Amino acid sequence: MPQPLLLGIVALLGLAVGSFLNVVIYRVPRDESLVHPGSHCPQCGAAVRNRHNVPVLGWLMLRGRCADCHTPISVRYPLVEAGTALLFVAVAARFGFTWALPAYLYLAAISVALALIDLDVMRLPNAIVLPSYLVALVLLVPAALLGDGLAPIIRGLVAAALLWMFYRALAHFGGMGGGDVKLAPLLGFYLGWLSWGSVAVGAFAGFMLGGLVGVVLMATRLAGRKSRIPFGPYMLAGAFLAVFAATPITDWYTALLTPTA
Known about the structure:
Elements: H1 3-27, H2 57-61, H3 76-95, H4 101-121, H5 126-145, H6 151-172, H7 178-194, H8 196-219, H9 232-257
């Protein structure tokens, strides 16, 4: 498939998935059904009209307000839709029209939902994380068998086990939440499927990003030393940094360690 066509299709898919993710982000933490009732205003309960359900454009047509009660609609809704589309396009550009593409598009989708839910309620819901293990296996095992054989799967399983042990040890000493421990092996499997360099970069980047943001929040007095800061978004951001840039990062670091004549 020509890349422009692939990217166009994936962008439209990302917009549609982003619209659904808005529902997931709002309802899953509240243990509400994702199916019933249909999309509605949380303030007045009025159903959202079909023409207003178009991703991004619906919000613009409504000028950011409910059509019935005129309550402001958060700008986060179109941002999630547009952001998911952009992330999908980036993933498609990274993997191309390959068997691995659906697996990493799925990872992108749940990453958007998990990051925002963690920021909202400081939880990484089991309802999203745990089924994702099965989805990862279903999508990546065939991709491996049709490509390089079992090596990526074995590497991914080993990486998942190593990250689980590491995060479990941190949690034992109070440095990590239970949701982070459950998410770590999933990310380890996805990164290990790619390379050991991806595992190293993804794991380190999560802590680096979390530490940098924590320092900024404390410096600006938006958080104190005892403030709870969700770590899931930084784990996910670090993982995607590895997905897109593990090779140049590891090459750069290796060059630093290599003595010059």
